[in-house]
């Protein structure tokens, strides 16, 4: 049974006890009365009649007592609690029963009938007989109950004895539990100590692992240093190979310098030969000069008035000039000879120094080769040691992996032991709770025992309830014994595991100590070797640095020689290139001059053609203007005729209609002529702008031509900017003056020119002329636009008349004009602005 079922049963029992106690308190009075009646059943009052109601209640109570329902046991509470020994009441009750049973055959009825013959009837007698029969039955049942009570008392005594035995057992169990708790506490303390030892061992192992990691890191650092040394040795080998190559290069350069020296010697010999030839030629020329002077003297003496004297003097001057040039060349050759001698001496000294340095370098290279061979041997040894160390490292790694696996196994065992310990602690706690429950149950059993002593009727139920509890307690006891045995077995296993772990830890410590000693020895040897290798590499580096310095000095000297030679060659080649460039530049400049001249001629021709076209267009414009003025006069005349008062009231005839049609036709022709004039003005403006741009291009070409001429005059030497600007200004002025002269020749005579016009330059005059023409066109358009009707289009004749009438002065003829959209006039580089308030003045920005 579970604890919940037991608790439920205990709660039910408590509830039943409370109910029964309440019933006892309610029925105590009636039960006391019944007990007094039964106890006072003496022989003299056996025949006295009793009231009917208590007898009925007694019968009901006896039926309840001997009924099959065992749940109601309240009648047992009325029994005395062991006040008198149980055996004596039995014979007393039996005697009373016997007396009661023997009563009816005695002659007691007639006695009573004699005393009460008058009052009792036959019905009462029959009732009394029935009551006696009932009393006899009650006596029999009471005897049976007494026998049963005796059996109950014996059973209660046996239950008390069993309860005392159970109490003793519970006390023994409590003592065993206390001992088990003490043992478990001791075992827990031992386990805690072992766990602490294991934790310390774990920390020690982690520290050892860290040491091992440090050793591995040191080994890795040593390997890195070894690789660095290898790289350094490789670098040294590369440097040695470079030095060999450089030595070979220096030897080749020395050979080349020797060959160059031979070439220089050959050149020197050639120059000496040329010098000898020049000296011989100079001597011959001197002899020739002396002979010529002698001949000249002779000729002067012979022929003083001959014309050949001048020729001879000229030839003499030529020979003297040639002799001076030869002397100058001879001095130059002597200077070159001395410089070549000094260069040869310097080269010889440098060659000797280079040979000495080459010998030193060869000796140093041989030393380096020997050192490199020794370093290679040391490297081979280091490689062998590295291989052995790598093998040792792999072996140690395997050992460390094995140790790690064992440590992991021990850690797993420790974790399992800890889990088992926690499980045991939980089991102990559950056992303690069960023991507490058992103590509570024992207390409940004591309470039930007290209640059994107080209530005899509950003994059977208490025994029935106690039997499973006793069985449960025995089962719990057996379970506790099994758990104790299992805990002891686990503790033994844990002790064996701890001993095994301690042995493994001792072996691991010994192995780690041995490995540490081996590593320390090898590290010391490796450090010694590394120091030796470092010392050797430092010596090699020093020797290499010295060799490098010597090589640098030798190479610097060779480079200086080569740079001097290359500088001389470059100077000579540069001068030759400059001469060629100047020649080529003169040729290209001559070609460009020819091209520019041709282009200038073509531009001038095109400009002349454009000027002719402009003159023709201006003549056409003047003719059109004259025609327009004639038409305007005719229109005015016709308007006067039309507006005369004689014809205003007359009806319109065929002539008038013809006249109006002619006027319309004339207006159409006039508008077409004005549009043609506008188109011609636009073309004139375009041509003027094109002429202006061509003039700019001509000016630029003339500037280029002047620059080229200045270059050609100075022979490639660039002129100063001031002279160039002056020439540019002069050429520009000359070109502008030429252009203005040509344009003035072709164009008609302008209007009256002011003093400012003579002062202005041709460009400003040209701009002013163009802007004035534009201004004139705008003024005409501004004067014609107000005459047009804004709302509806009238006939041309009517509009002309209206404009004629509206004009304040009739001196200037107004030109008829259709609705014409004004187009903006543009120049190439200057904007011309005009307003109504200027009154014909020009503003140029």
From TrEMBL:
Q: Point to the regions of Basic and acidic residues compositional bias.
A: 57-71, 255-273, 284-309
Q: Which UniProt keywords apply?
A: Coiled coil
Entry-linked Gene3D superfamilies:
1.20.5.340
Give the organism the record lists: Gymnopilus dilepis
Region Disordered: what ranges?
Answer: 1-122, 226-309, 408-427, 709-751, 781-820
* Bias kind Low complexity: ranges: 27-42, 112-122
| Coiled-coil features, chain-numbered ranges | 544-641
User: Basic residues: which segments have biased composition?
Assistant: 9-23
Q: By what name is this protein known?
A: Uncharacterized protein
Q: Where is the composition biased (Polar residues)?
A: 417-427
Q: Which domain of life is it from?
A: Eukaryota
């Amino acid at each position: 049974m579970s604890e919940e079922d037991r608790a439920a049963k205990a709660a039910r029992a408590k509830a039943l006890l409370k109910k029964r106690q309440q019933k006892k308190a309610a029925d105590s009075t009636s039960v006391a009365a019944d007990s007094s009646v039964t106890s006072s059943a003496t022989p003299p009052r056996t025949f006295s009649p009793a009231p009917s109601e208590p007898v009925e209640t007694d019968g009901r109570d006896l039926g309840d007592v001997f009924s099959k329902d065992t749940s109601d046991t309240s009648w047992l509470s009325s029994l005395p609690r062991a006040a008198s020994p149980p055996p004596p009441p039995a014979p007393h009750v039996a005697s009373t029963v016997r007396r009661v049973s023997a009563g009816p055959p005695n002659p007691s009825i007639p006695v009573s009938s004699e005393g009460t013959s008058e009052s009792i009837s036959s019905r009462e007698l029959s009732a009394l007989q029935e009551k006696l029969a009932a009393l006899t039955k009650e006596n029999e049942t009471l005897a049976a109950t007494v026998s049963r009570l005796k059996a109950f008392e014996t059973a209660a005594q046996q239950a008390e004895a069993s309860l005392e035995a159970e109490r003793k057992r519970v006390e023994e169990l409590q003592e065993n539990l206390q001992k088990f708790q003490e043992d478990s506490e001791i075992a827990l303390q031992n386990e805690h100590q072992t766990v602490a030892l294991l934790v310390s061992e774990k920390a020690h192992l982690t520290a050892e692992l860290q040491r091992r990691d440090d050793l591995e890191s040191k080994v890795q650092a040593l390997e890195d240093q070894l690789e660095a040394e290898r790289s350094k040795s490789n670098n040294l080998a590369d440097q040695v190979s470079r030095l060999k190559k450089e030595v070979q290069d220096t030897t080749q350069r020395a050979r080349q310098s020797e060959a160059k020296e031979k070439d220089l010697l050959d050149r020197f010999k050639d120059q000496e030969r040329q010098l000898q030839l020049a000296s011989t030629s100079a001597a011959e020329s001197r002899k020739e000069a002396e002979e010529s002077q002698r001949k000249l003297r002779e000729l002067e003496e012979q022929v003083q008035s001959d014309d050949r004297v001048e020729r001879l003097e000229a030839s003499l001057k030529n020979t003297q000039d040639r002799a001076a040039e030869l002397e100058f060349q001879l001095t130059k050759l002597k200077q070159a000879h001395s410089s070549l001698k000094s260069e040869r001496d310097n080269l010889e000294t440098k060659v000797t120094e280079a040979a000495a340095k080459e010998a030193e370098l060869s000796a140093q290279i041989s030393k380096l080769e020997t050192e490199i061979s020794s370093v290679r041997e040391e490297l081979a040894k280091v490689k062998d040691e590295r291989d052995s160390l790598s093998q040792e490292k792999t072996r140690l790694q395997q050992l460390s992996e094995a140790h790690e696996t064992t440590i992991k196994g021990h850690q797993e065992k420790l974790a399992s032991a800890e889990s088992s310990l926690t499980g045991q602690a939980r089991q102990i706690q559950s056992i303690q709770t069960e023991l507490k429950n058992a103590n509570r149950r024992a207390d409940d059993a004591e309470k039930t025992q007290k209640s059994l002593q107080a209530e005899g009727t509950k003994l059977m139920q208490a025994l029935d309830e106690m039997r499973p509890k006793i069985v449960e307690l025995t089962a719990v006891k057996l379970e506790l014994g099994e758990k104790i045995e299992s805990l002891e077995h686990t503790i033994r296993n844990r002790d064996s595991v701890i001993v095994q772990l301690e042995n493994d830890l001792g072996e691991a410590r010994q192995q780690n100590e041995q490995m540490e000693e081996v590593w320390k020895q090898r590290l010391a040897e490796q450090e010694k070797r590394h120091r030796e290798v470092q010392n050797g590499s430092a010596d090699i580096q020093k020797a290499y640095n010295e060799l490098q310095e010597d090589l640098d000095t030798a190479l610097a000297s060779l480079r200086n020689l080569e740079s001097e030679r290359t500088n001389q060659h470059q100077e000579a080649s540069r001068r030759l290139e400059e001469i060629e460039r100047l020649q080529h530049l003169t040729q290209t400049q001559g070609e460009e001059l020819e091209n520019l001249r041709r282009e200038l001629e073509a531009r001038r021709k095109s400009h002349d053609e454009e000027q002719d076209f402009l003159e023709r267009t201006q003549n056409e414009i003047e003719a059109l203007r004259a025609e327009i003025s004639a038409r305007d006069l005719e229109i005015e005349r016709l308007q006067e005729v039309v507006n005369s008062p004689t014809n205003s009231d007359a009806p319109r005839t065929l002539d008038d209609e013809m006249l109006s049609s002619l006027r319309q036709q004339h207006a159409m022709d006039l508008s077409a002529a004005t549009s043609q004039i506008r188109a011609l003005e636009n073309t004139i403006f375009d041509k003027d702008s094109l002429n202006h741009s061509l003039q700019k291009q001509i000016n630029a070409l003339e500037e280029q031509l002047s620059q080229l001429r200045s270059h050609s005059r100075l022979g490639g030497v660039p002129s100063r900017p001031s002279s160039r600007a002056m020439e540019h200004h002069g050429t520009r002025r000359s070109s502008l003056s030429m252009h203005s002269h040509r344009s003035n020749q072709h164009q008609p005579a302008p209007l009256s020119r002011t003093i400012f016009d003579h002062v202005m330059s041709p460009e400003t005059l040209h701009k002013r002329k163009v802007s004035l023409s534009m201004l004139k066109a705008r003024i005409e358009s501004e004067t014609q636009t107000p005459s047009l009707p804004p709302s509806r289009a009238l006939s041309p004749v009517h509009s002309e008349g209206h404009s004629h009438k509206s004009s304040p002065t009739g001196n200037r003829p107004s030109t008829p004009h259709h609705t014409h959209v004004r187009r903006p006039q543009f120049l190439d580089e200057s904007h011309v602005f005009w307003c109504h308030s200027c009154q014909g003045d020009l503003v140029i920005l």
